[in-house]
Amino acid sequence: MKRWFAKSLNRKLSLLILFAVVLPLLTMGTVSYRIATSVTEDKAKEAGMNTLRQMTDKLDFVIQDVENMSIFLIGQRDVQAYLGKEESDINLYSQLIGTLWNLSYSKKYIANITITPKNSNPVLYTTTITNSGLAPLLQQYETTNKSAPKWWSPLYDIQTSDGLRKVISLVRPIRDFSLFKALGTLSFSLDQSEIEHYLTDAGWETSGFVVLVDANNRIIAGGDRKWLMKDMSEVFPNLHGLTETSGVSNVLQGMHPYTVLYNGLPRVGWKLVGFIPTEIYQKQNGFVLTVTAVTILIALLLAMALVIYFLRWVTNPLMKLTKYLKDLNPDEMIPTFEVRSVDEVGLLVHSYNKLSDRISRLKDQVQLNEAMKKEADIMALQAQINPHFLYNTLSSIHWIALMNKDRQIAEMVGALSDFLRFSLNKGEEFCVVQQEVSHAQNYAYIQAIRFPDQFEIEFFIDPEMTTNIMLKLLLQPLIENSLIHGIQKKKTKGHIYVHGELREHDMKFVVEDTGIGMDEVKLRDIHGQLASANQKLGIRSEADEERKKVVTSYGLINVHRRLLLHYGAGAGLVLESTLGTGTRITFLIPRERGELSL
After folding, report:
1. 359 lies in a domain?
2. Which of these, 76, 146, 258, 581, is most buried using a 10 Å CB contact count?
3. What is the CA radius of gyration of the chain?
């Protein structure tokens, strides 16, 4: 498959362009799908929250209406008079019953209004109650009831002439306006079934439900009837975090995940909690996914058809030119090809037509170059005589010095001979580490004789790295730089240290001196030249030429460029220097090239 693509520019371009089209389409489709699903979910949550707010407003209106009516009855003169008399007044009793009846008749959510006197007067009520669960609740919550100006009871049952009903009551104490003593108790009972209508008639999600929770976190309306008066944590053990006035949460009820929306009624501490099944979003998201996938597929097929058509239109001239050139004889004159367009392909064909004349001239040039090459080979053979003549002459001087017992001259000449022999080295670019170190030692020995008592040099080379291969003529220029620019400008004796360390993947070399060092300006300038060489690999710009007029450390730049050319950007020189202390130069060489014997 790989070779099949490699043999056709048309196939490679088709694959690359299709990939360039498919990737944005898939990315755009994925992003669009996620945005659409997020918007769908947000819209559903927003609609659910608006519905909860509408329910909250209705319930808050009912609660406020009941509280307002209770305040009205507490302050009503007839009520105060009835509760303040020790003897029963039948006319006043009938009048108050009528007042209570009028208040509750037009409001379906009021199941009963009861005024219980402290004296012996009969109890006032709008519905005949044979059994009520309010009395036990008043005893259970006696502390809260007596200390508060109003108290909303939990859900409880009352037995009336119409049957069993579930109610929630607002209980208020009635006190004398003058003496502020307790005269009785007023209770407004709300019909739980009517409150539940507010939840079921609000248009909530058909597969979801809403529950009303009281201040004690118990369900008082909505949901399953068996949940009534149960704690929310008992019915929904996985539901947490409904501590705010309103918000959004998630819960797993059974095997069904739900999105939970809640909104509070601060007046009484109740909360409306709505449950929306997550599968509603998933169905809508499935539709969005289907539409997105179909759209992307259609766009992809259209893009493929257009890509194939336009690529063939563009590459047909190139395919014809390739087929035309395939059977050409290189030794014959290349014929011209008809140009039919002025675009890049046409310019390519036009350039091809120029090749015929150009190749003819190149043939003549090649013949001339062959003749010049033979002449250069002869000159190269003659040039090889000069190094041998130089080696023989130095060898003769070496033996004459030994015969005259001048050992220092003999060793200096021997070191110079080895130095020159290694420098030429038959044109080889690489050597083993031991040869490079010996070459540097020969140079240091010659310089030590030339400049006695000016410096000392020490070599610390890992013995295990002596047979590894490295680019030659790297250490000697660095030692020369330390000697000329660091040690010789120092009034006292200096030291040069050469370190070689074999590491797991590379070899590390360090040339360090105790010379005069460099100030920040000069160090920054040399760093700039090294960086420029690193970027351009030896191609100098006008800015580089200006920089060379200031810095004279040509050896550093040349070594740095050779390292970059042979080993890559990671092998360049690292220069550190402190004025008055010395200079440290470091470079790394990979050790993947194997080993050679000396």
Report:
1. yes
2. 258
3. 51
Q: Say which residue, 356 or 44, is predicted with more confidence.
A: 44
The dihedral through the CA atoms of 83, 87, 92, 98 has a sign that is positive
261-291: pLDDT as tens digits: 999 998 888 999 998 888 777 676 677 778 8
- Which structural domain, as residue segments, surrounds residue 370? 328-383
* Integer Cα distance of 592 and 505 in angstroms: 7
Is residue 380 scored above 60 in pLDDT?
no
Q: What are the C-alpha distances in Å from 535 to residues 530, 540, 567?
A: 9, 10, 14
Write the single-letter amino acid at 563: L
pLDDT for 144 equals 78
**For the purposes of burial, counting CB atoms within 10 Å of the CB of 434, is it exposed (0-12), middle (13-18) or buried (19 or more)?**
middle
Query: Which of 383, 403, 418 delimits the end of a domain?
Result: 383
Question: Looking at the domain assignment, is residue 503 inside a domain?
Answer: yes
Identify whether the C-beta of residue 170 lies closer than 8 Å to the C-beta of residue 62: no
Q: If we measure between CA atoms, which residue out of 553, 495, 490 comes closest to residue 516?
A: 490
pLDDT at 575: 94
Structural domain includes residue 314: no
For 369-447, list the strands marked E by DSSP. Answer: 430-432
Rounded to whole angstroms, the Cα distance separating 200 from 108 reads 16
**Angstrom distance (rounded) from CA 308 to CA 226:** 67
Q: Cβ atoms within 10 A of the Cβ of 180, count?
A: 8
> For residue 525, what is the domain's CATH number?
3.30.565.10
